[in-house]
Amino acid sequence: MSSPAVAGATDSALVTIELMNRAGLTARVSHAISKATLRPALDTVAKIAQRGPLRGAPAFRIANWAELVIAPLVAPHGTVRRAQLFPDFRAEWLWHKGIKGPDDIEQGVILYFHGGGFVFGGLHSHRRLAARIARASGVPLLNVAYRQLPKVHITETIQDGLTAYRHLLDRGFAPERIVVAGDSAGGGLSFATVLAAGEQGLPLPGGIATIAPFADLDPTVRRTHPNDAKDALLSAFSISVPALVGFAHDGELDLSWSPVNHDFTGMPPVFIQVGAQEVLLPDTEQLARRCAEAGVPCTVQIWDKAIHVFQAGADQPELVVVTGAGSGIGRATSLRFAAGGSRVVVADINQDTAEETVKLIADAGGVAYPYRVDVADVAALEEFAEAVLAAHGVADVLVNNAGFGAAGTFLDQAPADIDRLLSVNLRGVIHGSRLFGKQMVARGEGGHIVNIASGAAYTPLALLNIYCTSKAAVKMFSACLRGELAGHGIGVTAICPGGISTNIFNNAEVFGFDAEEHTRQRSKVTGLARMLDLVPGHSADSVAKAVTASVRRNTAVRPVTIESWFAYVLSSIAPPAMRIATRLSDANTMATWSDRLTPRRVRNSVD
What we know:
The protein is α/β, with parallel strands linked by helices and 607 residues long. It has two domains: 4-313, Rossmann fold (3-Layer(aba) Sandwich); 319-606, Rossmann fold (3-Layer(aba) Sandwich), CATH 3.40.50.720. 47% of the residues lie in helices and 16% in strands. The chain is built from 21 helices and 18 strands. The protein has helices at 4-8, 25-50, 57-69, 127-137, 154-171, 185-199, 220-223, 236-247, 281-294, 328-339, 351-363, 378-392, 415-443, 465-485, 503-506, 515-532, 540-553, 562-573, 575-583, 587-597, 600-606, and strands at 15-19, 79-85, 90-96, 109-113, 141-145, 178-183, 207-211, 270-275, 298-303, 319-322, 343-348, 367-372, 397-400, 406-408, 447-452, 490-497, 509-511, 557-560. The chain has a nine-stranded mixed beta sheet with strand order 1-9-8-7-6-4-5-3-2. α14 (465-485) links the parallel β15 and β16. Residues 597-607 have low confidence and may be disordered.
């Protein structure tokens, strides 16, 4: 496939244009929100830097200081760091502990330049992105914090890039095994550094790989490009300020400062990723044209509705295992992770429903694998964990979701019924965490375990005795496991939903009633499920959102729904009130409240 805009700018068979899949709903919504919020904010900041008392250097210095705010960001677990000092700037080696470090000069190496419009960013802001690139490529990476405005001019910034490249050559790295890479301003600096190396007679690297390169300091082309009105983050105006205010001499920009104005003859192969709506797409078009004119192999990937340097926010787990994923919360969670780019192992006791979930994921462009497993069967769970490891590798995230509900008087429940509920709701969580947790620890790269508990974990209800007990145990187990695994970089979260409209109501066991009353009570449970369909925030997807957000934030406990939050707070500050609620949750009282709260149309539909 080819993009009309870029294809029109090139006529060489050596230039390949790849249009990636049409953006999913999440990407499109994120694009719209960013355009409505972040872009106006950046335009305002650019106006402050362009005129007024903070014009130029003062505004640029404030942008420099923002790097300190991002200092707490850490590299992914398993990343090895080593400082590399230069006379005028700093750099940092990053590599995954599973590969050889930069002292092994026989392997390849990446020279990386961060983005930030030549005024923002550094080692802290781009450490996670750079470390993930190093891990994915399997080679060490030198992340360079080159000098920026207002300290130096663009010509001196290019000299910093050249100094870092010379350092790699002096260490003994073969030039053909060096890839110069960067994003945004760092992408433009990547091209400028290689061009400067060629001008000085140095051997050129094996390739250039960039993300949305800012390679033309002159904003003229971008101002007239349709994408100036479409970009979700940057405008032609905002990105022009550093160049026009900081670099220009008497309002004039030297054409030689921009890589797009150079002859690319003899340049190494080029790879570029850019968003289809980005205001920097014209820079990519011009770079592709230079490659075509010089006969340089160039591959351009264009991503629909991709926010500028979207790769930095794609800190998505590669492999996710979800149990009880054939319906309800498990299915919604699987769909959310798959939409974010994760491969999902869909496990359920029902093979057919697992395959239905996999089909939904595949239809949306995702990748998933169906498995049948009964989490109450420890031997089967062990075989499942081994099979996943052998076929797909170590899971980055495990979601222990399988479970079922049971209501009724405790004294009327048979031992077999109690054992079955505890086996699925509690022991399945324990053994799933044990098996997959061991794999995560052995790999040494961190991970996350999510255990679906319930608001019932801290809400004692007389008619849900064993269910509440199992969920309270899951919550406490998660807290203990979180402390144990923290040193391994593995987070553990207990998700505590309130009433969620899923099959758990339809499949719930009801004890302690005669046949006629049993039928009536099951109808009430079904009616409650239908009632929840009418209440915002009580869908399975609401829980799935909480799961994915908790993995990103490493949240310890996450209530879901307003009643779960209320009970969570009340159980912390007023335990006696919860005990009173328990006495009000006997069979007769609950039946009365059920009749009063259930809408008439729902009661009529189930009676």
